[in-house]
Amino acid sequence: MGHRGLRSGARGRRGRLLVVGHSGAVQPATEPDADAVTARRRDVARAGHVGDVGLARAGLTDPAPVVRSTALGALERLGVLADTELAAGLGDPDPTVRRRAAELTAVHPAAEVRPLLDDPDPSVVEMAAWATGERAEAGAVERLSLLAVAVGGHVDPLCREAAVAALGAIGDVRGLPAVLAALDDKPAIRRRAAVALAAFEGAEVEAALRRCLDDRDWQVRQVAEDLLAVD
């Protein structure tokens, strides 16, 4: 009676299927098709290595997000991933697939990745920011700048860090204020901002680097020393 109200097969707070074992301990249940999903994912991944375009492409419509994500990678490996297929991945309902698609836009300049900078899933935003930096996409500077700032920017520090890194990779002067502001964020973001300053020039940049020489984080100080050629 100690587990009254918790039935075998009930779902926990996060929607995970739960079962009650013989000892009364609540354990996550194994999804009945987990093995089948793993097998399909393995087959699709293998298709990308052995040249089976048909099987790799079939994975794009699989009900399991992990298989759809693997299919995108398999088709890219085969060199046959179409822009329309990538666009579908960018609009997939599952963030795992959107993140993989965003990563692949780094080498697909025709794909529109900027909308994912506003994705509700932080991991997708982080990858989209990385991709815009890889593409040196100047049109993303304004949005990246808004994401990068500590106050009013993205709540996830990894997203802010990725945005700062992208601004440095793009090197557009419009992104400099956001990079400078990032020098007051968390240590990892300050380090990224110091590195990003290498893409810019001017008295304001040099002054910021000299301020970094006194940063609490030794890696920020090291970056500043390297960029200023300080012995």
Account of the protein in words:
With 231 residues, this protein is mainly α. Helices cover 55% and strands 3% of the residues. It has 2 domains: 75 residues, no CATH class; 95 residues, Alpha Horseshoe (Leucine-rich Repeat Variant), CATH 1.25.10. It has 12 helices and 2 strands. The chain has a two-stranded antiparallel ribbon with strand order 1-2. Helix 5 runs parallel beside helix 6 and helix 10 runs parallel beside helix 12.
Number of domains: 2
Total strand segments:
2
Give the helix tally: 12
Helix content: 40-55%
CATH superfamily of the largest domain: Leucine-rich Repeat Variant
What percent of residues are in strands? Answer: under 5%
Give the uncertain stretches in residue-range form.
1-31
Mean pLDDT: 88
What keywords describe this structure?
mainly alpha; two-stranded antiparallel ribbon; 2 strands; 55% helix; elongated; disordered N terminus
Short description:
The chain is mainly α and 231 residues long. The protein is built from twelve helices and two strands, in the order ββαααααααααααα.
Secondary-structure map:
Elements: E1 18-20, E2 26-28, H1 34-50, H2 53-58, H3 65-78, H4 83-90, H5 95-104, H6 122-134, H7 141-148, H8 157-170, H9 176-181, H10 187-196, H11 203-212, H12 218-228
Antiparallel strand pairs: 1-2
